[in-house]
């Protein structure tokens, strides 16, 4: 089936917001009295906010120690610190090759879609001045099931008016690659082959991606 839409994950593909998530989670861990390392943070990539909190508490040996209300309060505080960081972002933080890649697909008549788990995606896209490059934007405010559930990508295909089999997904997280495959889409991994599996192609970043080749996969 010919490719008619390219769906992009945000964190790790278009921008590196993982470093800001890390600073905010580390601050919460500090308040709770334990260390949270960059290696621990790898487990949070592509994972929803509440699931990230569960993993953080697991790392600190505090699983099951808090009520739902306390968990929601901790997640909200973490988000407040995270939003302080992303509010200061600008175009200089767009990862290399992103704009060329988005333009390249559009020049070939391919729809461009954002498919992110983040509830803050609109703020980030707006600070990066990237919103006009997308035909559809699906973020954490529009979906209820986290990756590896395919909901975010299936909704992206629907909003773009194409079939799932006509989509290619660009993802840096294993949960996202799984979500793309479960949606019946092609998956292009962004990252290191040692950390990821189950993809159709892998590149180090969008700067290596040639849209005219991707539409033939
Ligand atoms: P928020 P993506 C994901 O973004 C991040 O990789 C993940 O670390 C984060 O927990 C999730 O968004 C939710 O973000 O707290 O801003 O709603 O990779 O799906 O673009
Ligand atoms: Mg990601």
Please explain how this structure is put together:
The chain is of the alpha/beta class and 217 residues long. It folds into 2 domains: 5-15 and 92-214, Rossmann fold; 18-86, Putative phosphatase, domain 2 (DNA polymerase, domain 1), CATH 1.10.150.240. The chain has 9 helices and 6 strands, in the order βαααααβαβαβαββα. The protein has helices spanning 18-32, 38-42, 49-59, 68-86, 98-107, 121-127, 151-160, 174-182, 211-214; strands at 5-8, 111-115, 136-138, 167-171, 186-190, 201-203. A 6-stranded parallel beta sheet has the order 3-2-1-4-5-6. Strand 4 (167-171), helix 8 (174-182) and strand 5 (186-190) form a beta-alpha-beta unit. Helix 1 packs across helix 4 (68-86). The chain is globular and about 50 Å long. It starts with a strand and ends with a helix. 42% of the residues are buried. The mean pLDDT is 97. The site of magnesium ion has 9 residues, from loops.
Give structural attributes.
217 residues; alpha/beta; Rossmann fold; DNA polymerase, domain 1; 2 domains; six-stranded parallel beta sheet; 41% helix; globular; binds 1,6-di-O-phosphono-beta-D-glucopyranose; binds magnesium ion
Our measurement of the CA-to-CA distance between the termini, rounded to an integer number of angstroms, reads 9 Å
CATH superfamily of the largest domain: HAD superfamily/HAD-like
Ligand inventory reads: 1,6-di-O-phosphono-beta-D-glucopyranose, magnesium ion
Question: Strand tally, please?
Answer: 6
Strand residue percentage: 5-15%
Overall average residue pLDDT: 97
What is the architecture of the largest domain at the second tier of CATH? 3-Layer(aba) Sandwich
Reported by name, the CATH topology of the largest domain is: Rossmann fold
Class inferred from helices and paired strands? alpha/beta
